[in-house]
Amino acid sequence: MTAESVQEPRTASGCATAPSAVLEGPVSHAISRVARLHRIAAGRVLRDLGLHPGQEFLMMHLWDSGAVRQSELIKAVGLDPSTVTKMLQRLEQSGHVRRRPDPSDRRASLVEATDTSCGLLVEVRRAWGELERQTLEGLDAAERGELARLLGKVEATLCTEVTRGGGPACDDGYREPGSC
User: Fold this and answer.
1) What is the pLDDT of residues 10-50, one digit of tens each?
2) Which of 27, 57, 83, 134 yields a CA-CA distance of 20 to 30 A from 123?
3) Contact of 134 with 143, CB cutoff 8 Å
4) What is the 3-state secondary structure (H, E, C) of the chain?
5) What distances in angstroms separate CA 30 from CA 38, 118, 139, 142, 149, one per listed residue?
6) Of the given ranges (1-10, 60-69, 135-144, 170-179), which has the lowest mean pLDDT?
7) How far is residue 142's CA from residue 131's CA, in Å, rounded to a whole number?
8) Which residues lie below 8 Å from residue 39, measured CB to CB, with a gap of 6+?
9) Longest C-alpha distance within the chain, in Å?
């Protein structure tokens, strides 16, 4: 990408022209647009599983970590407590999670994936595979690797900025998934 191509906001066919205010941040604008579209695509592949975007991250954490305090889950996913509470209510109603008092502190709640949610794990993996296919369809293997590398660098930079500003701690990176 040349400096000239970064200076002018691009428009995709069928998309609105970029606002003039983004002239100083065309990459940030592109990331924002891609993130929005990715969330829409995620919503489509998760809809058939009865999940809303974001709920799969809660489930992924629970499948990998086992029972955790609700407060720890909120920190792990980096969302507003009221958002996580609403997500957990829906996941509990659908039988994917259960909450129970923490035996070591009755004021706290433990949240865990139910045994029946293990079948959902396979479906979420499949949905994320489809989302990956849709997202990277136009890229060859080298471009996919380069995109992952560059996004990793951007993420590390933003993580440093967010934590420096008193924001929530960033993930420690990806860990080996647990078994359901």
Assistant:
1) 445 556 676 777 778 889 999 999 999 999 999 999 998 99
2) 83
3) no
4) CCHHHHHCCCCCCCCCCCCHHHHHCHHHHHHHHHHHHHHHHHHHHHHCCCCCCCHHHHHHHHHHHCCEEHHHHHHHHCCCHHHHHHHHHHHHHCCCEEEEEECCEEEEEEEEECHHHHHHHHHHHHHHHHHHHHHHCCCCHHHHHHHHHHHHHHHHHHHHHHHHCCCCCCCCCCCCCCCC
5) 12, 36, 17, 21, 17
6) 1-10
7) 19
8) 53
9) 61
Spatial distance between the Cα atoms of 49 and 120, rounded to a whole number of angstroms: 8
What local confidence, expressed as pLDDT, does residue 137 receive? Answer: 96
Tell the residue number behind the tokens 């709920």, with chain if given: 55
d(CA 58, CA 77): 7
- pTM of the model as a whole: 0.75
Identity at 49, one-letter amino acid code: L
Rounded-to-integer distance, Cα 68 and Cα 100, Å = 10
